Amino acid sequence: MTNGRFFFAFLFFLCFAGRVCTAQDNKPPLPKQGGLVNDFEDDLDLGTVALLKDRMAAHNAKNGDNVVVASIKNYANFSSLKDYSVELAGKWNIGLRGVLITFSQAKNEVYIEPGLSLQKKLAPNTCEYIIRNKILPKFITGNYDQGIIDGVNEIIKVLDAP
Known about the structure:
Layout: H1 3-24, E1 37-39, H2 46-63, E2 66-71, H3 81-91, E3 98-104, E4 109-114, H4 124-140, H5 144-160
Parallel strand pairs: 1-2, 2-3
Antiparallel strand pairs: 3-4
Helix pairs in contact: 2-5, 4-5
């Protein structure tokens, strides 16, 4: 192969590879964290937000675990709420001793993403129990505020257990 053909083939490869990479990374930017309660969907009333912030801040001061809540309108270009939550937890540096509760009223979904050091206490079956028995029963009746309060309370109860 001559140098000209090699250069052309290499240039073509770079252009093609660039298009494939940009097509895969075509996800909307993740929102910035605004504290312990990030109500991007405007589901929670201000009293609930204040209550949750106080409760989660007190828990953090007591044992260093961070509990963070995020409500989102959608997770377009992500395959699932779980994938979205994992990326969001990474961007927000939830960390080893943190847990992110992500929910979407519009999609009727909830996901709990625990940090690595909390995964024994908040194992998948425990997170599923909290979602099914503490959060979703309130969501079904339209009481998103109480569902998130009950979910946060149960997570703190689990984390505080010996």
